[in-house]
Each structure stands twice: as C-alpha cells, then as structure tokens.
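seq as requested:
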Amino acid sequence: MNAQPAFPDMILEPLVRNALIEDLGTYGDLTTRTVIPAETRYCARIVAREAGVASGMQIAEIAFRLINPGLKFRALVADGGRFEQGQALAEVEGEASSILSAERVALNFAGRLSGIATQTAAFVEEVRGTPARITCTRKTTPGLRLVEKQAVLHGGGFNHRFSLSDAILIKDNHIAAAGGIRAVLQAVKARASHMIRVEIEVDRLDQLAEVLDEGGADIVLLDNMDTPTLTQAAAMNAGRLVLEASGNMRLSRVAEVAATGVDYISVGALTHSSRTLDLGLDF
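struct tokens:
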C-alpha cells in the first residue's frame, strides 16, 4: 500500500462528532440507557465479514473516544493493511453502554472507507509494473472528502485536488467560456502564481497539439479518449507534460490504459461507486 502518515485527530474529530450527534439524536441512546446496567463492561471486536483493505480504524477510535474517553481501543489491522474474512480488525474494551452508543458510527465509517480502500487496491494491482498511478477525483460524498481521499491513500492510490483552491484545472466549460485553449493558457501565463500547477483538459488530439504549441500547462487531462488515441497522445507529448487519462476508467480497462504511457489514471468510481464492506461489532 501507499504508506501515509495519519491525519491529525483534531482535523477528523469534527466529522466524527457531527455523525455521533446525528445518531444520538435529542436524548442520546435510549435503548442502551434503558436496558444496559451502568456498571456493565465488555470487550468487543470489529470483525470483517469479508476480505479487504482496512481504512477508518483511526476514525473508529475517535468515535469511541468521543463517546467515552475511558474506552480502550486497539487496532489489530492498521489502516492500509489487508485482512481476511472473519479476521478481527480492532478491539475496544470498557463500559458496554458506551461501546454500543458509538458502534454504528464507527462501523459506518470503517465499512465505507474500507470499501474505498479495497476498490482502490484492486485498481492499483491492475497497473502494477507500469509507471502509471491511480488517483481519485473530487467526486466524493459532500462533507466526507477528507476521509474518502484518505481511504484512497490507504488503498495505494494517490490524491487529486482536495478543493478548487489546490491547483488550476481548466476543463471544457472553462475553455468554452474563456474563448478557447489559447485564450485560457494566455490568461494563466499572465495571471497565475508561479507556485500553482496548471492542468488543462482536452478530448481531441488537435487540442493537445494546441496545448503543446502554446505552453503554459504542466499537466494535460486526456478526457474520454479510447486506448489507441491515448497511445497517440503519449507519442505526441513525448514526455513534455504530465499526462492524466480520465473518463470511463473501468477495472477491466486500466491495465491497457496504463500501457499507453500516461502518468496518471483518474477514477471517479473509487469514491462515488465503491461498495461498503460488511464489518460487524461482536461482543
């Protein structure tokens, strides 16, 4: 996997806190308060019902800690680690009522994020042995972009922009509104900071030729091109600019796309279509 340092807990806590507030409602966990004696203690485990790649263990720990700082959480599989069906991913020990109150939020995050990490790992495996890198997009769940992109890292992928302010990405609508490829690239050269990377989207080889002739871009996004056209684009570029292939990137196709010579393959499905993994909490 693409080993990455964890995000600071203080950045992730607001997301988890909001999810807990949503789940606890107005008066907290009514069921647990009613039927579980306050002194009851248990050790519970998060168990995988299917194999995959872990993500969300840090989030799960935060969820339990926010409910009760006295709970003891221990990850048995680190974020980014592979696990098998039936394997325990983490254990949490302490007041049973607190464990039960945090359970659903912890599992929702861990299942969703592990699903993204697992799907990403499958794409990464398909391009193994080539220089191409699998990257995500901004097609994320509103409010959850940070953790979903973290899950992509746990799966061995790379991150595209986190926000509109990260870089200049000129897409077809920008080109149309600004008056063409030369117009937008001339505007970039006149106005953009030297500290900002510039990417421009093209969907035809004549547009790529125009970008190469005009200059001003660092990266070209080759949008919805078939594999032979991507091969031609890589030959035209001859290593001058970074190339990113995007659009219609299915798992069955990415190996042949990687073989064309592109540097990055962006896959929106990593975050917008990954299946949630089945994880459970067993007492």
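The longest strand covers residues 41-48.
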